[in-house]
Amino acid sequence: MSGDMAITPIYLQLLVLSAAILSLLRPFGCEVPIQNTEIQAELGGRVWLDCDLKGSFTLLYWQGGKTQETLDEEDLFINGISRTPNRPLDINEEFKNRSRVYETNGTLELWNLKPSDTMYYKCYQVSEDSTIKSLYHLNVTATYTKPALTTYSRDDGLLEVTCSSWGGFPRRGVQWFVLGENNSIGWQEVNQTALQDPTDLLWNLTSTIALNCTRALRISCAVGNATLAELDICTQSSPFPPSVIIAIAVVAVLVAGMSVGCLVGILKRVCPTRRSDGELELAVVVPLRSTNDPPS
């Protein structure tokens, strides 16, 4: 073994060997594995997918599919170029006026991106002796609105807090952050709703949690990259649930009523009366003496 071969990394040797084998098998119709490239773009944005054009071609076109396995079966033609006379390509209605293929390099350009554009894209370059393919997976994303919070006090003393966010894609989960006295406290999710608009395919999300509002808390929620700043809640909370507070109020009213009744009774026993001549005299009620009491 020569010195140069000894210092060549083993993985480079394997790559060279693999390339040589694939080049020998290509003329016999053997398929070359296609590397999938992940692409991410924003809703309403623009993206370019390179076809990795090699040499001349008679037909170059792009095809789409929701899964890689069924890409060839779905046969969703997007756009392409035909150099065969009198054989124009019929562009898919979904991609008319917002796609083009560059003849110089086969690149597919898409603009005004929609959530429905999230799929696999494959480029086919047909020449006299081979078909070369490039494979991409495009993910179109839409940022959710800044979450909004609403609260509702339940009769059992728990506080329901609802986090809502709209207009995002793909579907995400709602994350909650609840802190109290520098420690995480217990809470439970009582409801979650995810609705997708049938027209633009964007998602509207809501999540509701229930927590014990007996002390001051800091709360926040997030959907994807949209996060709500921490808010203070339960800052004027009572240590008793509403049912206990109502019971205490009822008892207080009863005690106050009994006190007023006693006061009225006392006033009736000791109160000024008016004589027939119009003069007031103080009527004093003297308790009866028992027969067993000794004389004074």
TrEMBL record:
GO terms for biological process: cell surface receptor signaling pathway; cellular response to lipopolysaccharide; immune response; negative regulation of T cell proliferation; positive regulation of T cell proliferation; T cell costimulation. PROSITE patterns: IG_LIKE. InterPro entries: Ig-like_dom (IPR007110), Ig-like_dom_sf (IPR036179), Ig-like_fold (IPR013783), Ig_sub (IPR003599), Ig_V-set (IPR013106), T-cell_Activation_Regulation (IPR051713). SMART domains: IG. It is found in: Cell membrane. Its main location: membrane. GO terms for cellular component: external side of plasma membrane. The keyword Glycoprotein applies. The chain crosses the membrane at residues 244-267. Residues 1-30 form the signal peptide. This is Uncharacterized protein LOC105909271 isoform X1. It comes from Clupea harengus (Atlantic herring). The lineage of its organism: Eukaryota, Metazoa, Chordata, Craniata, Vertebrata.
